[in-house]
Amino acid sequence: MTKTGLTILSACLISFPAAAQHVAPPGMDPNAPFKPLEERKDIVSWKTFAQVELVKQKDRYVPQFSSNVAALDRKDIKVQGFMMSLEMGEKQTHFVLSAMPSTCAFCLPGGPESLVEVQMKKPVKYTFDALVITGRLAVLKDDPSGIFYRLTDAEQAK
To answer: How many domains does the chain have?
Structure first.
């Protein structure tokens, strides 16, 4: 397994205090169901990222992206989501952005179409709140870690 694959796998095992207790993050009603983020015209929608199918090629499955998604490859985009830490500490430079907040330290809140690996230019403070991040998107057709999307040279939007 690659370093990125191991790092992403470790995201499933990191225990956030709130997640370890299976409670909603601070500021969220623990009895309210989690809802997807509201659509914004200036942000790539998670519905767009979901336009992918797994297609069998020989002995494995590979992602087949819609033309809308493929057109985003190597483009600067803006995406909104919830931080899933891959590093210890208050400041993060490498994390996964998710369409839905994580409520369990051992569970991913969705499949690879609802996750974007993020590599920041400068560290950002960990938060339970939704973030808006800008950066260069890579649409990954055959990444060994199973990630479909990676945002590099990323910055928190102002």
So the answer is: 1
Predicted local distance difference test score (pLDDT) of residue 25? 53
Residue 30 belongs to some domain of the structure: no
Nearest to 113 by CA among 24, 36, 60, 41: 36
- 3-state helix, strand, coil split of the chain in percent (to 5) is 15, 35, 45
Cβ-in-10-Å burial (0-12, 13-18, 19+) of 113 comes to buried
Produce one character per residue of 115-136: b if its CB has 16 or more CB atoms within 10 Å, e if not: bbbbbbeeebebebeebbbbbe
CA dist 142 and 135 (Å) reads 21
Which residues, in sequence order, are CB contacts of 60 under 8 Å at separation 6+?
A: none
Determine which of 6-20, 48-62, 83-97 has the lowest per-residue pLDDT on average. 6-20
Rounded distance between C-alpha atoms, residue 27 and residue 147, angstroms: 30
Confidence band for 55, pLDDT divided at 50, 70 and 90? very high
Residue 49's domain spans which residues? 3-22+38-156
- Report pLDDT digits (tens) over 104-155: 767 777 889 999 999 999 999 999 899 999 999 999 998 888 899 999 999 9
